[in-house]
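We modelled the chain as a single entity of 303 amino acids. Its sequence is:
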Amino acid sequence: MKDSITRWFVIAAVVFLASAGADMKSAHAADALSIGYVEWSSSIASANIVKAVIQEELGHPVELKRMEADEMWESVAEGSVDVILSAWLPLTHEHYMQEYRAQVDDLGPNLKGARIGLVVPDVTVGRQTGGRGERARPYITAESIEDLEQYADKFRRTIVGIDPEAGIMKKAHEAAEAYGLDEYRIIDGSEVSMTAELSNAIRQQRWMVVTGWTPHWMFARWNLKFLEDPKNVFGDAEQIHTIARKGLQQDMPRVYEVLGNFNWTPEEASHYMIWNQADHGMYPYEKAQRWMRTYPERVQEWL
């Protein structure tokens, strides 16, 4: 009798543990997908588009978590967020990739043809064309980062940047050293403060240089140009990669598949960013749903 009771308890314990394990696995698989993003237009765009597709098409809940660039990388490496969609490689976020490569899954590029650098207004004074139909000369005549030293007074010895942990800010400091811009100060801020300063400068026809990148809505709103970078500090065309935590493929295989399929063009991304910047009557998620209705074939490719 005693042996029978013991066997019964053993069997019951095994069944209970197996059931509990299955329940835990099921519960984990049902957890919301957490996406880390930075308060950049391109990062907001990709995070909201992916959230909308996964929620609307797969019925899987998604949570967006805003953070700084360094925190974004650290969080996906530690597993406190599931995925990030804003890894600029191979150059801008190279230092983060070197640090966390062994702790994450690189799902490859979700956007090709991205670019970073120093940007100035390419806006003319008065009429856009001369008497013979040729384009009038822009009020900012600098063409290269090398010209910044010559025009230091006009630029007020200032480069307007974004959040200090952004990879482009690291490159801006490297460029200042490489081009001997010792007199310049690089101002930390945010994308919002940078574009506000740029808007004021263009309206007042004031000389200004900012840290800029594409895709970004500001290139659709204003005529802008990248300053030439003969020392190639900012590198060539970049790619924006999707980076996932280890184990996500096992926990959410269908979601992981869609994340791996997600890719779009700078033009498609800019379309959403222009809507998001211009139309303040809708939430970013609603604009993502609108984007899905505009590009249904692209959404089906990801699925």
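As a brief sanity check on the tokenised model: The longest helix spans residues 2-29. Confidence is low (pLDDT under 50) at residues 9-29, 127-133.
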